[in-house]
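Regression report. Comparing outputs from two consecutive submissions.

Submission 1:
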Amino acid sequence: MKAAMLLRVTSTLDLPNGYGTPVRRIAFVAYWLNCYVLTESLPDQVYLIPLAVQLACGKSHAVGAIFLSNLFNHLDALHTFEI
């Protein structure tokens, strides 16, 4: 990871009770990616934490297509099981 990216993560405004800490932000993004975006895309989740760090730093990635793919797969499975 680049030094500028680490500096950007560590230079955040700390809110009360540590809610603004970089570790909490990275943990939240990793949880969100794991539960809602990368549910079936990466079986071993190798890229989960590096992707979460990059997203928490402000670097953009195209995760919308992966999210929509998983959403449509789940909707399709729901439709299949209801019939």
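Submission 2:
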Amino acid sequence: MTTIAERAEMPQVLLIEDSHEDAILVQRAFKKADIPTHVTIARTAEIGLSILRREGGFLNTPFPDIILLDIDLPYISGIDFLKLAKADSELRLIPIIIMTNSTSEADLLETYKTYVNGFVTKPIGLDGYEQVIRTLEEYWFKLSATPETHAPASLSRRKHAEIPTSPHGRLGGQNSRG
């Protein structure tokens, strides 16, 4: 058993976040953290799934050791992404941490029922993000033993759970949360 820091020279984080400002704050916080970390940003859950499934132009994108996921995403919500990822026998091994503005008890409960690994309310400002990222790094990279996650050769060739569509043909519809 090993931690992410023990087995990865540079841990890989997939950040699924549609807010440009929040994504920049997370990247800056990781740059100031103890462990050099590569952060890949997906602006939608669909792009996140394509990265994980090695589809399209994402064949050579680093496979993540951990995923930071916003709930309030356009088209496919973070909760729907979580359901798809945790339903996949390979992807479910990747720790997924919700990082959201939501303080809803219903969101917390729904994500834990869907096997999320953690739930963090987004902080305010760079100092707050640095504290959250240091804490995540301390626990998920240095303390907690996790299974090694890497893209299996068969992942892009396997049949995946279908991406939900709305009756109007749009992916997942608009997220109803504000």
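Expected: both submissions complete independently.
Actual: both completed, but the second showed a warning that disappeared on reload.
Relevant detail on submission 2: The beta strands are 12-16, 38-42, 66-69, 96-100, 118-121.
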